[in-house]
Amino acid sequence: MRYAFCLYALAIFPLCEVKKRQYLTKTFIDFINKNQSSWRAGKFFLENVTSGNFVHLHPQLVLKVVDEVRVKDCNLEDLHIPDSFDARKEWPHCADVIGNIKDQGSCNSCWAFSSTGVMTDRLCIQSEGDVKFQFSPQDILSCCENCSTGWVGGGFWSRGWRYWTESGIVSGGDYDSYQGCVFYQESEYYLETKSPCIKFCNNPHYNISYAEAKHFGSDYYQVNPAEECIQAEIMSNGPVEAVFDLHEDFSYYKDGVYTYTIGGLVSLHSVKIVGWGAENGNPYWLAANSWGCMWGKLKGFF
Ligand SMILES: *[C@@H]1O[C@H](CO)[C@@H](O)[C@H](O)[C@H]1NC(C)=O
Ligand SMILES: *[C@@H]1O[C@H](CO)[C@@H](O)[C@H](O)[C@H]1NC(C)=O
Ligand SMILES: *[C@@H]1O[C@H](CO)[C@@H](O)[C@H](O)[C@H]1NC(C)=O
Question: What Pfam families does the entry give (predicted)?
């Protein structure tokens, strides 16, 4: 079967590069908490995994690339957009799939996680919970040549989606999970390079071949960036991939409605939006990050 899904923005990311970064200080956290009341900052990672989880925070400017990706028409007729929405509640038979927080580890593979996360959620939603097929971020990372840019090691968002329609993506679970055909390999906190493309299942317990495990998308598209159009898309079809400027303070998110407060621009970051709402009058998007469930008080959501 082939399925249609969406894409929200196009960008290039550094892939799986390890660069250590000085930790932000307590002074920095205190500043955030005193300077505004929308969100609260804290230190949430365990001490010994902090450096690993922060390697994606290196101050390298990333390029925005515009690939030609169709922008879907936005039709708001007869649509009542509620004040709040959570895809996990809307599709309870897929709540475990949509709420599954991933951990990209030391690899700058957020784009692979948010895109395969959306593919996985939407396949579950469209099959009314019958198909819980977890698309493998590792398969795109290792095997999509056009998704990265040689020695710079960058990743283009739209290429992961194109790879899905042209080459298909196999199943694959978390690091060391032995789930699916190609489970995640890049989560070691000091890994230096990305894993090569092997084109067979790295899971010896998986009894389907790599070729048979490939699932193809039929189409992908961008969503009109107007707020209501994004909401309409999520309500009608499920979560979407989103891209935003990642600043240093975001790493220290604890809870509340995040809004940029202090710190340098790190790179672009990609996440999965699953809903929206408002807190104390501040409207927000509800999104799943891919920094593990130890990040933040909402266990990986923000
Ligand atoms: C927050 O910090 C900025 C920059 O230092 C400052 O201009 C602003 O007045 C501060 N706001 C509050 C409420 O402390
Ligand atoms: C990391 O921290 C956890 C929790 O404090 C601890 O159980 C574990 O042994 C630590 N691992 C290493 C390698 O230090
Ligand atoms: C990779 O990119 C080249 C040049 O844009 C294109 O001709 C080729 O079809 C792409 N290959 C895949 C597998 O997407």
Answer: Peptidase_C1
